[in-house]
Amino acid sequence: MFEIGNTLREARVRRNLTLQQVEEDTKIRVKYVQAMENEDFDVMPGATYVKGFLRTYSEYLGLDPDVIIGEYRSRVSPSREKDEPFGGSSVIGKPHSHRGRNTLVFVAILCLLVLGVIWVLGRGGEQKAPQTSPSALGIGGSPTPKASQTASPSQAAAAKLKDVLKINAAFGDCWMQVRRDSATGTVLSSGTLAKGHSRKFKGKVLWVRLGSPSMVKLVVEGKTQPPLSGIAPVDYIVKNGKAKKAS
Q1: Closest among 207, 235, 201, 204 to 219, alpha carbons compared
Q2: Rounded-to-integer distance, Cα 116 and Cα 111, Å
Q3: How far apart are CA 82 and CA 177, in angstroms?
Q4: Digit-coded pLDDT (tens) for 126-156
């Protein structure tokens, strides 16, 4: 048996992280971070929430979440875990799933409406077009302009991957946070990326913090970056087709 709270607190202090910085990066309120470090788990709504917070916080600090959660489970009676109302669902990221589906449905409907307007406008243009060609009346017309050259498949693929970053949790779970432009820019994503899953982001400059860099692969504009190492949080800047450690 070891002390969960002291382990978390010492890891945070070693990284010179304040409670406010932890709250900003993990979206866990300061009072819950303090509750974990003080092992005052009764402050939280229930065992499911405790395990979710412990997993996110330990991954953020570069600790093994399974060891931390295993120690917590050894102290909690099975009946308390069984009575949890949410059946063990993670408290990080899940509530946004419905919002994402609603956004996709809205975008699909909007695309159909745009295509319908284009089709109607195209039909109107066909009806207004003259039925008799100049050549049929014996009037010489200007040469038919050549069709413009279309982009080759390779050029189209390159354009599609321009400024695109793919984060692939190929080797294990990894907490991550992605911001636009800099460490203080707009947050595009924050939470744990499960093993075997990947996320894509687009932007000329992206700031990325990885809780366990060795667990993931970074693919920038379709090119896999050199393998990452380390189990402590590391910041990266992605721009000009490359990912480099932030200074």
Answers
A1: 201
A2: 9
A3: 32
A4: 555 445 454 544 545 555 555 556 667 878 8
pLDDT digits (tens, 9 = 90+) for 72-127: 998 876 655 554 444 333 334 333 444 455 667 677 788 788 887 787 777 665 55
User: How many H-runs (helices) and E-runs (strands) does the chain carry?
Assistant: 8, 9
The one-letter code for the residue type at 226 is P
10-28 pLDDT, tens per residue? 999 999 999 999 999 999 9
Judge whether 4-82 and 159-245 match in fold: no
Bridge-partner residues for 239, per DSSP?
Answer: 205, 242
Amino acid, res. 6: N
The domain limits of the chain are 4-82, 159-245
Contact (CB, 8 A) for 209 and 25 = yes
Q: First CA to last CA across the chain, in angstroms?
A: 38
pTM of the full predicted structure? Answer: 0.43
**Topology, domain 4-82:** 434 Repressor (Amino-terminal Domain) (1.10.260)
Among 61, 92, 77, smallest CA distance to 210 is for 61
Q: CATH code for 159-245?
A: 2.60.40
